[in-house]
Design goal:
The complex is a heterodimer of chains A (197) and B (291).
Chain A: H1 4-8, H2 16-29, H3 41-62, H4 92-102, H5 106-114, H6 121-134, H7 137-150, H8 155-165
Helix pairs in contact in A: 2-3, 4-5, 4-6, 5-6, 6-7, 7-8
Chain B: H1 14-35, H2 45-54, E1 63-66, E2 76-79, H3 83-106, H4 109-132, H5 134-152, H6 158-170, H7 179-211, H8 216-220, H9 226-247, H10 256-275, H11 279-286
Helix pairs in contact in B: 1-2, 1-3, 2-3, 3-4, 3-5, 5-6, 6-7, 7-9, 9-10
The chains are: A mainly alpha (197), B mainly alpha (291).
Chain lengths: 197, 291
């Protein structure tokens, strides 16, 4: 494992409070919620694992090398993302498509969907999910919307559409909290206190 | 490219601004040194971003003060010779050349004449640059051909058309041998490319409609209502969110604060200006300001 202090970006002489602050900032950055359905979710999970290990190594060594993990650390949740939820429908083709998506084989999943005999709500949902993985955000939204209109009670479809309508979720560094900032107007937010025009 | 990818000077601190200017001037000098003075005319902010992105974690910003045509007396600090500046400079020449060729194929009479002249002048620089980045040269040629075919058939899908440019841009980062880094950079550049293609389409919307030219946004949103505008902005912001998420997975370098400023402040600011129709005026007023 890399030097735990460099993983957290702190000096070995840093105080406990500084280490906790650095750890929390990194945990906020790589939190699974920020990478939900993101094709890079596995990389974020790796990063999260690395900083968790670094934090626990430091806290263990500072508390005298005890084997117990310190309280207060981020407990990584093994989240099951939208597409990984258990598929209870009876269609074997869709089960196969989900399986291919779960192992990251998007082209094969796409190929299988092309052979579907009908375009029902599940077909639109899975097509939308694949479009999202490819970065085709408009088509993903259209397919999720169609899936929701065909099966309005399906929570999985509604969750996917809601994610698109919210524009995804993501970490923003300190000072960049407000996205819709107009560079020609004196904004009241702290990140752009002076006008540029 | 198009010059939309720029930092917000008012939200960038002095050290960040100095590093940004040094990278920009370093790229300009690299273009002149490697590909001749004429190629410097096509320098833009987008490739300064690419250069900073390609810089490795330990890349120093050895900014030496150098004189140039624009700063003949006092000179300007510019990053010294480096591999990442070389790559960005060569790729900027390759893309500019192919864009000129693209205009030659489908532009108006005067645009074609200008493009023919400029492509002729840029030819020797292009022939040198393509030898250094043959993969990127192939990717640009292929994607622009695909894009032209979609534009000719007046494709109503913004995703399909934007995908060509997005894939073109994601090919701009050479493989490093680190799969996680290559995936993250590829994803960042894909969504940045998607955003650039769409912001350019919105910027040209009124002109294209008047001239009866194809515009992907007009094809997808024939009525262009307020709801459509909000929807498209939401989709473009979503691309910026995904680009930002990919950026956070990269090892930082000296220009990380500048690139964060670009992704989280510069691009949303440009988007606001373009959607409110003030971008071109803003450009005219700030043309002399440098990065």
């Amino acid at each position: 494992m890399n030097d735990p202090y460099s993983v957290l970006g702190v000096d070995p002489g840093a105080s406990d409070e500084e280490i906790k602050r650095a750890y929390r900032e990194l945990a906020r950055k790589y939190h699974p919620d920020n990478y939900q359905n993101n094709p890079l979710a596995d990389l974020a999970e790796e990063k999260m694992k690395e900083i968790n290990e670094a934090y626990h190594t430091i806290t263990r060594s500072r508390s005298g090398g005890g084997g117990q993990r310190q309280a207060g650390g981020y407990q990584q949740q093994q989240q099951q993302y939208t597409y990984q939820q258990q598929y209870t429908g009876g269609d074997a083709l869709y089960a196969q498509v989900r399986q291919q998506i779960n192992i990251g084989n998007i082209p094969q999943a796409e190929q299988l969907l092309r052979t579907a005999p009908r375009q029902d709500a599940e077909w639109h949902f899975l097509t939308g999910y694949i479009a999202y993985q490819k970065g085709w955000l408009d088509e993903a939204t259209q397919h999720f919307r169609t899936a929701c209109s065909m099966e309005p009670a399906n929570a999985e479809y509604r969750q996917a559409l809601s994610m698109m309508q919210q524009g995804g979720s993501g970490y923003r560094p300190a000072g960049y909290g407000y996205a819709g900032c107009d560079p020609c107007t004196t904004c009241m937010c702290i990140s752009c206190a002076s006008p540029c025009c | 490219m198009f010059g939309y990818v720029r930092a917000r000077r008012d939200t960038l601190n002095a050290a960040g601004l100095a590093d940004y200017e040094a990278a920009y001037c370093g790229l300009c000098r690299t273009l002149g040194r490697r590909r001749g003075s004429f190629s410097r005319l096509f320098l833009n902010y987008d490739f300064a971003f690419l250069a900073m992105l390609l810089a490795p974690g330990d890349a120093p910003c050895t900014a030496l003060c150098r004189r140039c045509m624009l700063h003949p007396i006092k000179g300007k600090p510019a990053c010294g010779e480096s591999r990442w500046l070389d790559t960005a400079a060569d790729e900027s020449v390759v893309l500019t050349y192919w864009k000129l060729r693209d205009t030659l194929a489908d532009g108006g009479f005067f645009a074609r004449m200008a493009a023919r002249f400029l492509a002729l002048c840029l030819g020797p620089a292009y022939r040198g640059a393509r030898l250094e980045c043959p993969d990127f040269d192939r990717a640009v040629s292929l994607r622009l051909t695909e894009l032209r075919a979609l534009e000719e058939e007046r494709c109503p899908s913004i995703d399909r058309t934007a995908d060509c440019f997005a894939r073109l841009l994601s090919a701009a980062a050479p493989r490093t041998g680190s799969a996680p880094r290559d995936r993250a950079v590829g994803q960042l550049l894909y969504h940045l490319g998607r955003w650039i293609y769409l912001i350019d389409a919105v910027d040209d919307l009124a002109e294209d409609r008047k001239a009866g030219r194809y515009n992907p946004v007009a094809a997808r949103f024939p009525d262009w209502t307020e709801e459509d505008r909000l929807y498209l902005r939401g989709s473009m912001d979503h691309s910026l969110t995904l680009a930002g998420a990919a950026f956070q997975l990269l090892e930082g370098n000296r220009w990380q604060p500048v690139m964060e400023n670009i992704l989280y402040s510069g691009l949303p600011g440009v988007e606001e200006l373009v959607f409110s129709g003030r971008w071109r005026d803003h450009q005219k007023r700030h043309r002399r300001n440098g990065p």
